[in-house]
């Protein structure tokens, strides 16, 4: 097995010959799709099959960001719109059991949509807890304003995905909700004390340590490591994510092409693995950048391989039975109460 520890994107709605050749040679663990890769259910299904054919693994994970709200790669007219995380937190404010039921149902329906076209990993739930004055890049993607509400509804969403045979990815570990900048564009620097971070930002992640996959935050926490963002910080990876939070699942980077990070793509990739990440994520399909990431990514082995295999084992079961028409009706009825 020469699978490399990275996840790659592709440029369009079908694989080019160059991409197919590169993926066959580089053998990334998985792939991620974006709106540029989506045209119709039949086309997405064919693209997923082509990506798996390229690496010769029928279980190669295919990821997507299908949160609902502002972040939804599959959408109308072929797929329904889904609400933001915050919408679930506003349902029946005095009845958290209803919030939890509907959050799980929404994720279960998303899993049904994804599995039907071959997508097996959703970068959901968002476990970031927003703070007053923070950048709205998280905003209504968060389930609520408190660590407990975020954890409860985040777990419900993760359970809905798993029931439908789709792996959840908790993000952005160890917490992006306090960041004053969008890490797609700039490097956020958080000056909160470690005590504040532990009580507020890290708490939801400590409550979901049983989840199979996690994504890092490109955020500097000056109380922990003033020099490096979490993705490339050995201190944050070892002392906080593996230590204080106690997470033993597979940790992937957020997208290495985001402008929060600096240096060459080889440098970024090497720094992430040196810090302790298990998997590199590169999203934009740029061939030159992907080649640099592939050259720096190690062969998947050791603890990273164990975690990757453990994650895939979570979705070998048949999906939980679902009547999508009845389930959608129930979801729409619940959402209409706050329309």
From TrEMBL:
<dbReference type="InterPro" id="IPR036962">
    <property type="entry name" value="Glyco_hydro_3_N_sf"/>
</dbReference>
<keyword id="KW-0326">Glycosidase</keyword>
<dbReference type="InterPro" id="IPR050226">
    <property type="entry name" value="NagZ_Beta-hexosaminidase"/>
</dbReference>
<dbReference type="GO" id="GO:0005975">
    <property type="term" value="P:carbohydrate metabolic process"/>
</dbReference>
<dbReference type="InterPro" id="IPR001764">
    <property type="entry name" value="Glyco_hydro_3_N"/>
</dbReference>
<dbReference type="GO" id="GO:0004563">
    <property type="term" value="F:beta-N-acetylhexosaminidase activity"/>
</dbReference>
<dbReference type="Pfam" id="PF00933">
    <property type="entry name" value="Glyco_hydro_3"/>
</dbReference>
<protein>
    <recommendedName>
        <fullName>beta-N-acetylhexosaminidase</fullName>
        <ecNumber>3.2.1.52</ecNumber>
    </recommendedName>
</protein>
<dbReference type="GO" id="GO:0009254">
    <property type="term" value="P:peptidoglycan turnover"/>
</dbReference>
<dbReference type="InterPro" id="IPR017853">
    <property type="entry name" value="GH"/>
</dbReference>
<comment type="similarity">
    <text>Belongs to the glycosyl hydrolase 3 family.</text>
</comment>
<keyword id="KW-0378">Hydrolase</keyword>
<feature type="domain" description="Glycoside hydrolase family 3 N-terminal">
    <location>
        <begin position="30"/>
        <end position="315"/>
    </location>
</feature>
């Amino acid at each position: 097995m020469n699978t490399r520890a990275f996840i790659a994107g592709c440029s369009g709605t079908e694989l080019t010959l160059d991409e197919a050749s590169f993926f066959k040679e580089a053998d990334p663990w998985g792939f991620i799709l974006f709106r540029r890769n989506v045209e119709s259910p039949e086309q997405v299904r064919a693209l997923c099959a082509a990506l798996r054919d390229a690496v010769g693994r029928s279980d190669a994970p295919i990821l997507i960001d299908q949160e609902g709200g502002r972040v939804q790669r599959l959408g109308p007219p072929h797929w329904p719109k889904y609400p933001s995380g915050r919408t679930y937190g506003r349902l029946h404010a005095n009845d958290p059991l209803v919030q939890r039921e509907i959050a799980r149902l929404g994720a279960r329906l998303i899993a049904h949509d994804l599995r039907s076209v071959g997508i097996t990993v959703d970068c959901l739930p968002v476990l970031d807890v927003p703070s007053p004055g923070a950048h709205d890049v998280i905003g209504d993607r968060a389930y609520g304003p408190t660590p407990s509400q975020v954890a409860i509804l985040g777990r419900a969403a993760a359970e809905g995905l798993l029931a439908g045979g789709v792996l959840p990815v908790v993000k952005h570990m160890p917490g992006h909700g306090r960041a004053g900048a969008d890490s797609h564009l700039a490097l956020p620097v958080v000056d909160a004390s470690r005590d504040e971070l532990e009580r507020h930002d890290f708490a939801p992640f400590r409550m979901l340590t049983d989840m199979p996959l996690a994504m890092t935050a490109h955020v500097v926490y000056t109380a922990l490591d003033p020099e490096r963002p979490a993705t490339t910080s050995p201190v944050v990876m070892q002392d906080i994510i593996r230590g204080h939070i106690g997470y033993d699942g597979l940790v992937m980077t957020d997208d290495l092409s985001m402008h929060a990070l600096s240096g060459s793509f080889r440098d970024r990739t090497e720094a992430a693995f040196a810090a302790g990440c298990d998997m590199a994520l590169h999203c934009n399909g740029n061939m030159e950048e992907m080649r640099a990431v592939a050259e720096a990514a190690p062969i998947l082995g050791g603890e990273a391989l164990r975690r990757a295999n453990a994650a895939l084992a979570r979705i070998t079961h048949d999906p939980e039975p679902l009547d999508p028409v009845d389930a959608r009706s129930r979801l729409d009825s619940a959402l209409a109460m706050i329309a």
